[in-house]
Amino acid sequence: AKSKGRNEICFYEDQKNQPEKLVQSRLESEVSKAFDRDEFTLYFQPIIQGDSSLVHYEALIRWHSPSLGTVSPERFIYAAEQTDLIIQIDYWVFDQVCKYLARFSDKSKKVSVNLSLKTVESVFLEEQLMSSITRYQIDPNSIELEITEHSIMRNTAETIAKLERLKRCGFSIVIDDFGVSNASLNHLRLLPVDKIKIDKLFIDNIKSDNKEWKIVESIVLLAKTLGLRVTVEGVETKDQYYLLKNGNCDEFQGYLFSKPVPFDLIEKTETNIKELLQKLI
Ligand code: C2E
Ligand code: MG
Ligand code: MG
Ligand code: MG
C-alpha cells in the first residue's frame, strides 16, 4: 500500500503524465494552506514495552482537508517531502508532542516523533527542537526521534555529528521502517542509533517456519549484537505477537493492541491494552 500511495503522486518529468503533476502541485499548495487553517491533528499509537507495563506512543499526523477529505500521511508526507514543507510539518508535530508530553502525569512515558531525512538535514533542526523543549520544559529523554528513510542522506558527516549531539542531549535515535530501504544497513553503520523498528512488511506474513520469520530473527540477532533495542510494527494477531515475543523483540506496535487514537482516548486505550496483556500472558 505504501508504494502504491507514493506512486500515485510521483513527480513526472514528461508531458504525458501532466495530470499526476497537477495532483502533486495541488497537494503541495493544499498542505501549505492546511497550516493556516488548522487542519492537522495528531494521533497516538501505543507501543507496548515487552519488559514492563509502561506504554509509550508514536505520534502520527492526520490531515482532514475540507476540499480533499481525509488524506492519508502515506500520500501527503511523500508530497511534502518533495518540498521543504516536510520540515515545517515535522517541526509542528514535534512542538505539539512537547505540548502533549507536558500533560502526562506519568513522566516516564515516551513519545516517538517521525522526522524525515530532509528535516534531520535541515540547518535549524537543533534550534527548533530545543526551542519547543524549553518552552514546554520537556526532558529530551522522553522523546524518541524516528528517522524515516524515504530519501537518501546527502550530507553524511554533518548529519551524523548532529544526531550525535541530539543523542547527547538525551534524545533516542530510532531507524524506522528498518529493512525496506536499501540504505538500512548503511544507516545502521553510520548513525548513532539506539533502536530499530522492523517494518510491517516483514511482520505481515510471519510463520514460525517461513522466510519472513528467518529474516526477522536475523535482524533481531544483528540488532542485539550491536546492543540495540528492537520494535516491531504492524503486529495484528496474537500468533504474530507470541512469535515475536519469543523471538526476543522488545517492543510491539500494531492493531492487535490499538490503532492510533486521539490524545483524549489514550487513558481508555491503555486500560484496554492492560486487560488484553493479562489475557495474552
Ligand atoms: P510509520 O512511521 O512506519 O508509522 C506506522 C504506520 O503503520 C502508521 O500509519 C500506523 O497507523 C500504521 N500501523 C501501525 N500498526 C499497524 C497495523 O497493525 N496494521 C496496519 N495496517 N497498519 C499499522 P500512518 O499513520 O498512516 O503513517 C504512515 C507513515 O507516514 C508513517 O509510517 C510515517 O512514515 C509517515 N508519517 C506519519 N506522521 C509523520 C510525521 O509527523 N512526520 C513524518 N516525517 N512522517 C510521518
Ligand atoms: Mg514511525
Ligand atoms: Mg515505522
Ligand atoms: Mg512503516
TrEMBL record:
EAL domain location, by residue?
24-274
GO MF annotation terms: cyclic-guanylate-specific phosphodiesterase activity
Signal peptide: which range, if any?
Answer: none
Instruction: Report the protein name in the record.
Output: Diguanylate cyclase
Provide the taxonomic classification. Answer: Bacteria, Bacillati, Bacillota, Bacilli, Bacillales
